[in-house]
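in:
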């Protein structure tokens, strides 16, 4: 409704007092650069730093108690492994399908959360919340790592 009123006013050569709120060039790079740089630094810190600081969050799936998850190296790949309350293991790629940061398990919500832009995935890797639109790739759990 506002868009219709605004377009009609602009055609008529008028500018309602609230039209500045919808001005497509309302960005203020000088004022907003600080926040943008801060966000970019955080994403970079997670994208690079998580790979350097945390090669894996657990050494083996044997360490996983039921109802928890951890990033584990399986076959040389970082995998997000979840152990269901009944003991079954489920493994998916730990690489977020949005831009490649590493996900981490959220114990409270029982989800895989990406620290970079907030995507959330179910234990089976399906997308619960974007910006990611594709699920985490499924991954086999080697037989010798199963319980
Ligand atoms: S890299 Fe952007 S949400 Fe994961």
């Amino acid at each position: 409704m506002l868009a219709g009123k605004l377009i009609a006013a602009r055609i008529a050569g008028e500018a309602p007092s609230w039209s500045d709120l919808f001005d497509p060039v309302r960005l203020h790079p000088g004022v907003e650069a600080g926040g943008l740089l801060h966000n970019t630094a955080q994403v970079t810190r997670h994208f690079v730093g998580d790979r350097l600081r945390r090669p894996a969050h657990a050494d083996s799936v044997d360490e996983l108690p039921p109802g928890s998850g951890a990033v584990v190296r399986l076959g040389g790949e970082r995998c997000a492994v979840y152990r269901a309350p009944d003991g079954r293991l489920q493994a998916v790629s730990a690489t977020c399908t949005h831009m490649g940061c590493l996900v981490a398990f959220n114990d409270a919500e029982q989800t895989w959360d990406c620290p970079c832009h907030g995507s959330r995935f179910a234990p089976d890797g399906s997308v619960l919340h974007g910006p990611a639109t594709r699920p985490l790739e499924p991954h086999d759990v080697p037989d010798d790592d199963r319980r």
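note: The pocket of FE2/S2 (inorganic) cluster is lined by residues 96, 98-101, 114, 116-119, 131-132 (CB under 6 Å).
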